[in-house]
């Protein structure tokens, strides 16, 4: 049924449809999907009912996250949220690349700001695991200061915080991947924790898939040095591994074309960090097999968003069931047993 409905939805501007979807979800009831018990996994000291999470970008303003759990997600990440409200880049800024089951977006951190998102988080309390993805305002003079203020602002209100230094749509943001800048950011975060200026909450770094191997190795050494709680791999890519419509569009590419790029990087990060840092695998997931492969390559958890656009909301329930079968077929009792088995390093040995 979704395929028939999708044909109609795809006639209209993606951003308009997304907004209508959010409004629709606010008012319709959703039955809670069954999640097999063997998918329960403990990461960051928290029990995730499923390793599948909703990636940032769908519920930017924390409006419907409580509803999304009913689809079978084990955790939800809202945002990206910026300190001050901002419109983002000019429209149109979301484009479907239908043939490739991909999306290119140049949103540029459109956000209602920290204050209003916190109100939404407080008004829609849930027992589920909620993360907030924080970014920097485009006109900010010092991006690092925006992240520090975000950590202080949200640390008492969410299960974890993602520090998004990898969007390709805010000029200069990816410069935080540079060794000196990354160390400056992590040093300030370390001082926050040392001085007890923030509540105890896992702080994750979301990185770009476009980092070369040498720089990625350096980044991983820095993550180990500063005992980073977790790494999300990865954001969208500026690469265009296809021909035709979309190759000249600005913005980040997500969807199935990102899958191999992000999974290769995931495996490298798992190996570079010797399995010592929990990883969340994101990029191009559209099936249980995709998610399970990321787990086998080092991901303790996974996230998706574009896959739902092309395959519908029933995808999550289907994936939960099929991942359970894949685990059993491989003789694993739990998700943690499968993490990193296809990488060269397992559990740091």
Describe what is shown at a glance:
This protein is an alpha/beta fold and 349 residues long. Helix content is 36%, strand content 16%. It has helices at residues 2-9, 14-27, 65-68, 114-123, 143-154, 179-194, 213-225, 259-272, 288-296, 306-311, 315-329, 335-338; strands at 41-43, 46-48, 52-54, 75-81, 94-97, 102-105, 129-134, 160-164, 203-207, 230-233, 252-255, 279-282, 301-304.
Helix content: 25-40%
Tell me the major beta sheet.
8 strands, parallel, barrel
Text of the CATH class: Alpha Beta
**What letter string, H or E per element, gives the SSE order?**
HHEEEHEEEHEHEHEHEEHEHEHHH
Mean pLDDT: 95
Tell me the overall shape: globular
Overall structural class, as computed from helix and strand content, comes to alpha/beta
What would CATH call the homologous superfamily?
Aldolase class I
Question: What is the terminal separation in angstroms?
Answer: 48 Å
Poorly predicted ranges: none
Number of domains: 1
Q: Which strand order does the major sheet show? A: 3-4-7-8-9-10-12-13
CATH architecture: Alpha-Beta Barrel
Q: How many beta-strand elements? A: 13
CATH topology: TIM Barrel
The proportion of residues in beta strands is: 15-25%
| Radius of gyration, taken over Cα atoms and rounded to an integer in Å | 19 Å
Number of alpha- plus pi-helical segments: 12
Features:
TIM Barrel, three-stranded antiparallel beta sheet, 12 helices
Model description:
- Helices cover about 35% and strands about 15% of the residues.
- The protein is α/β, with parallel strands linked by helices.
- The protein has a single domain (about 1-340), classed as Alpha-Beta Barrel (TIM Barrel), CATH 3.20.20.70.
- An eight-stranded parallel β-barrel has the order 3-4-7-8-9-10-12-13. Strands 5-6-11 form a three-stranded antiparallel β-sheet. It has a two-stranded antiparallel sheet with strand order 1-2.
- The chain is globular and about 55 Å long.
């Amino acid at each position: 049924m979704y395929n028939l409905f999708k044909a109609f939805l795809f006639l209209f501007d993606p951003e308009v449809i997304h907004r209508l979807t959010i409004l629709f979800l606010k008012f319709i009831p959703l039955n809670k999907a069954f999640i097999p018990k063997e998918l329960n996994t403990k990461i960051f000291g928290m029990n995730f009912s499923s390793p599948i999470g909703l990636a940032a970008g769908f519920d930017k303003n924390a409006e419907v996250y409580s509803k999304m759990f009913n689809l079978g997600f084990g955790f939800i990440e809202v945002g990206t949220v910026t300190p001050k409200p901002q419109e983002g880049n000019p429209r149109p800024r979301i484009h479907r690349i239908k043939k490739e089951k991909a999306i290119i977006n140049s949103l540029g951190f459109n956000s209602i700001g920290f204050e209003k998102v916190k109100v939404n988080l407080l008004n829609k309390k849930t027992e589920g695991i909620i993360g907030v993805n924080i970014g920097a305002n485009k006109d900010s003079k010092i991006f690092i200061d925006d992240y520090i203020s975000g950590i202080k602002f949200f640390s008492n209100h969410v299960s974890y915080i993602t520090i998004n230094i990898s969007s390709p749509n805010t000029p200069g943001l990816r410069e935080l991947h540079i060794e000196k800048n990354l160390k400056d950011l992590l040093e300030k975060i370390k001082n926050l924790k040392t001085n007890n200026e923030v509540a105890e909450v896992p702080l994750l770094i979301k990185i770009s898939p476009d980092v070369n191997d040498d720089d990625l190795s350096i980044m991983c050494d820095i993550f180990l040095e500063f005992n980073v709680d977790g790494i999300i791999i990865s954001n969208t890519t500026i690469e265009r591994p296809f021909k035709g419509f979309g190759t000249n569009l600005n913005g980040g590419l997500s969807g199935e074309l990102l899958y191999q790029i992000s999974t290769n990087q995931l495996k490298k990060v798992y190996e570079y960090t010797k399995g010592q840092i929990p990883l969340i695998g994101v990029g191009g997931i559209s099936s249980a097999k995709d998610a399970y492969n990321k787990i086998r390559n080092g991901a303790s958890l996974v996230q998706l968003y574009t896959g739902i656009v092309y395959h519908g909301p029933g995808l999550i329930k289907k994936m939960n069931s099929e991942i359970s079968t894949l685990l059993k077929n491989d003789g694993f009792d739990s998700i943690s047993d499968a993490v990193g088995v296809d990488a060269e390093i397992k559990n740091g040995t």
